[in-house]
Amino acid sequence: MYVGWQMKSNIVSITPDTPMLKAREIMDTQRISHLPVTDGKARLLGIVTDRDLREAWASPASTLSVYELTYVLQKLTVNSIMTKNVITATPDMTIERAARIIHDNKIGALPVVQNEKLVGIITSTDLMEVLLVALGMSEDSGRLSILVRDRVGVIAEVGRIMQEAEVNIRSIMTFPLAGHEGVWQLIMRVNLAVHARAVKALEDAGYRVIVQYTEDLAPYLPKEGA
Question: Does residue 207 belong to any structural domain of this protein?
Answer without folding.
Answer: yes
